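Recap from last week: sequence in, structure out.
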Amino acid sequence: MPKLDRRQTLALMAAGTLGACATSPETATAFAPTVSPMFEHGVASGDPQATSVVLWTRVTTDAGDLAGTFQLARDDAFTEMVLEGAAVATADADHTVKLIPTGLTPGTTYYYRFVFDGAMSPVGRTRTLPVGELKKLGIALVSCSNYPFGHFNAYDAIAKDTAIDVVLHTGDYIYEYGAKGWGAETGASIGRVHVPANEIVSLADYRARHAQYKTDAGARAMHAAHPFVACWDDHESANNPWVGGAQNHQPDTEGAWDDRRTAAIRAYYEWMPIREPAPGFTRAEFWRTYAFGDLATLVTLESRHTARGKQVDYAEYYATITSPEARDAFMHDVMDDPDRKMISPKMEAALTKGLMASVANAQPWRLIGNASPIARMRVPDVVALGIDPAKAPKGEAPGDGPNMLWKAKWNLPFYTDTWDGYPAAREAFYALSRDAGAEDLLFLTGDSHSFWANQVADDEGRPMGIELGTAGVSSPGDFVDTGWDAETAEKLDRVFEQALDEVRWTDNFHQGYVRVVLTPEKADAAFVAMDTVLLPDYRTEVIRTETIIRDGKTIKFADA
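Predicted structure tokens:
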């Protein structure tokens, strides 16, 4: 039996409650792909537009270039064939295959499959973007799938969720750590150890890691069931990258950062169902705009490799933050430095264009696919609010990022790698959105391994919309992972809700995804939790729901 961590123990103790929600109308049926030895990594589709979509697979072979075929049909029996043509798996692309059939009908479901060397792939299902009137759109918001920490049960649940039309993955699709890195103990106990064993640095390393993640049964099921859109975060390359390096990159032993980043990005493009960049753009400039009929526009952000300034390291400043005045000077001069960017001018132009078009077309919803939290989260005086300091994790220097008590003492941002660590860039983002006529943004966010429901505003207190954050697919919540006991971790969730103006609700105990269903009148969000990720057999529970409605120029929670 696998060793249970604190959160899993609590979850299993509550299994009777969770089990009551194991079957719901949204998960009554499943699109279940078969498994083929020639196609160990399944099939996938993504980056949809109204008349085209990317189809993907990977052929398991040691041969050189291999010729095959693909088929696209309107039914899963392939009696209503739409297209059939050649496909090639090249050794230069690690035998991955990407095709973009065009001339398709908007808002239409299609089925596809591949044939190589006499073997037939699993069948995949996809859908083009709708045009014109759209009454409902279901999005699965997902992030942070760490192979050693557990099975990707959230992916499997998404595959079964009949309310979902498209999956939005907001980053950390893979993790770069070696077999002895973060999650090693859990991975060893459940037979999910990272491959290769070293921290991934080379092109071959990144390819092997992507391949491992796509052997997960839940990943194969999700990709076969729904079209996929994404932005990346940090672990697709290395922890906390910026334009000049990364926290988890050591040039003396791991070579030039540019070489490593190039390898990571190349493998990502090979192994993900995404389009190559448009003329005039590089692969690093990975952002997209998706229009869902007259209902919504989604803009995904690139906030890692094209503009981001270096993260502030508290360890470099904690000795000088000795008074409220020194803290204020640090926040003004260092943290709020306007030269520290998050997104590039070209990204800003794409965002402006997408938002302005959405406003001009009177769509009710403007969505931002956002890799890391944007809400303000300056740590409050947690001790005054009931947290026992004796229960704080031991061995952390005051300047260590996880040191909650030190950050609480000086009311500092919880994270420095999120938008909270780049407040000038956040304010510029809000100003750009206001200028585009969009003060009603719905941020769909990953990264933090916690569920969030946040109401966000600019520096002057003007509402800018709502942020929904998803927990990790398997990555554990920060409070429990950094060593707080379960009771205190739960109290910290409540303290953040009580003390932070922008945080309405949070949960750091579960893994799962957020189901967001949009209609012209409202958005319904369901926070879907897994009872375990240590085993592939799991149950789900909707642990919270929120309804979002319009409020003049912005949006709000219905009961706020």
